């Protein structure tokens, strides 16, 4: 598996592991199974139970085609809709914990998913999917043709390695940040802040904590209104984690 390096708009470098061919194929076949189940269930309901073919016997070809297109449209737009709704994941990708991301550090948008969706015809349904398979295997960032056109890549979330594992702290999905100006700090600043904070807190060195807070305030313009230096630094660490992961 190849490693992808993404530089965010705050010049923070984040490393990801590209999803393997096996993971991508697994997600594809899971999605394909879901689609086949939908088609099978729909066919049973419409033709065996409701006898739709008899009801449409008097309709012209265009009308019958329009009805079938409407009924089976979820199959056509399955990946486009789910990746747009779930931010880069279809049901298959969710189960295998892989995700589509932009390689420039931004969140992929509908336009990116649309480009990938258009290229599915070439990647998956031309020569039994060989173009997509070959491009994933041979490309430096494990991209299929649709990924190359959209500027995206598929990463695994199982072994993701990013800055939060080394210099930041874990935050929950419901976390609400307090200090937007924390983005004035750099990755190296946060490393120094965390290392200094941990050493000072372990030794109960309030003088170092006071100086550290004063330095943060002078660089960012943030004011510690709580008066508790330890809580203030903890919030700074979490806020930086929040903003660098959600930009």
UniProtKB/TrEMBL annotation:
The record's subcellular locations are: Membrane
Cite the InterPro entries for this sequence: RDD
Question: What organism, scientifically named, is this protein from?
Answer: Flavobacterium chungangensis
Q: How does it sit in the membrane?
A: Multi-pass membrane protein
**Where does the RDD domain lie?**
19-151
Report the protein name in the record.
RDD family protein
Judging by the UniProt lineage, the source's domain of life is Bacteria
The UniProt entry, under PANTHER family, shows:
SLR0254 PROTEIN
| Keywords, comma-separated and alphabetical | Membrane, Transmembrane, Transmembrane helix
* UniProt-listed Pfam families: RDD
TM annotation in the entry: 25-50, 62-81, 117-138
Note whether DNA damage occurs among the keywords: no
């Amino acid at each position: 598996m190849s490693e992808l390096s993404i530089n965010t708009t705050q010049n923070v470098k984040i490393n990801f592991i590209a999803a393997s061919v096996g993971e991508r194929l697994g997600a594809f076949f899971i999605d394909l199974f879901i689609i086949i189940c939908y088609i099978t269930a729909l066919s049973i309901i419409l033709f065996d139970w409701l006898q739709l073919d008899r009801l449409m016997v008097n309709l012209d070809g265009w009308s019958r085609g329009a009805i079938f297109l409407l009924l089976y449209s979820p199959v056509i737009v399955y990946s486009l809709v789910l990746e747009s709704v779930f931010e880069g994941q279809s049901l298959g990708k969710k189960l295998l914990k892989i995700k589509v991301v932009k390689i420039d550090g931004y969140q992929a948008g509908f336009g990116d998913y649309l480009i990938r969706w258009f290229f599915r015809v070439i990647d998956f349904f031309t020569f039994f999917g060989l173009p997509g398979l070959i491009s994933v295997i041979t490309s430096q960032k494990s991209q299929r043709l649709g990924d190359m056109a959209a500027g995206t890549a598929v990463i695994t979330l199982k072994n993701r390695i990013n800055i939060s594992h080394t210099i930041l702290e874990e935050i929950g999905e419901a976390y609400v940040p307090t200090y937007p100006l924390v983005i004035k700090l750099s990755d190296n600043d946060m490393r120094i802040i965390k290392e200094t904070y941990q050493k000072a807190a372990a030794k109960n060195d309030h003088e170092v904590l006071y100086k550290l807070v004063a330095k943060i305030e002078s660089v960012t313009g943030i004011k510690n209104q709580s008066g508790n230096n330890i809580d203030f630094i903890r919030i700074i660490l979490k806020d930086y984690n929040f903003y660098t992961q959600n930009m």
